Amino acid sequence: FNEAYAIDDSYRVKHHGAAMLPPAAAPLEAVVVAMPNGKNAPVFNVNGSKVTAVRVTHHPADPAYGYRFDYVGRSVTVSGDTSYDENLARGAMNSDVLVHEGLQPEMVGIMEHAMLDAGRPRPAKIMHDIPAYHTAPVDAAKIANLAHARLLLFTHILPIVPDNAVFIRVFLKGVEDVRPDGVKVGHDGTIVRLKKGDTEVQVSDL
Question: With 49 labelled, which of 14, 122, 124, 181 sits at a CA distance of 20 to 30 A?
């Protein structure tokens, strides 16, 4: 990554000057996250801002992590890529917002069969394989319930769902039976506000 951005870094230093952008500050440094119990561990805790790594399941990608962010009494947990994993619920316990990936298996199955019918076996196989290491919306709702999260916010959505009530209803099929309230499908421009000293989760769109 540092090699890829080295030229860009040099341009910016030349443009703005080393006093403003010290070259020594440019390289990124990888830090190994120690996981003593193999599950969850803090990776950053400065001035009340805490980040915790949460072990999730995304086999064969292993290890895989989600992250929990705590600040001034409010909290957001981001699942990362994962299949159903109750350790995520433990890591996200009492979060204001659980930002969770979601793959709608029926919709992806339709895509798989359409690709097979079109004589495209390679992308069809991908559609066949991916549900195993992602999370169905209903299962994400179960995790949100176990975590007592105030809001379940879907992102990294498969297939891509336009901001349209019909498509969203299909994507969320069965979710209402598990979690009647506190669910939102995120889109570009979705804004979530968490005010200090409050418990409300404010959601709006640009």
Answer: 181
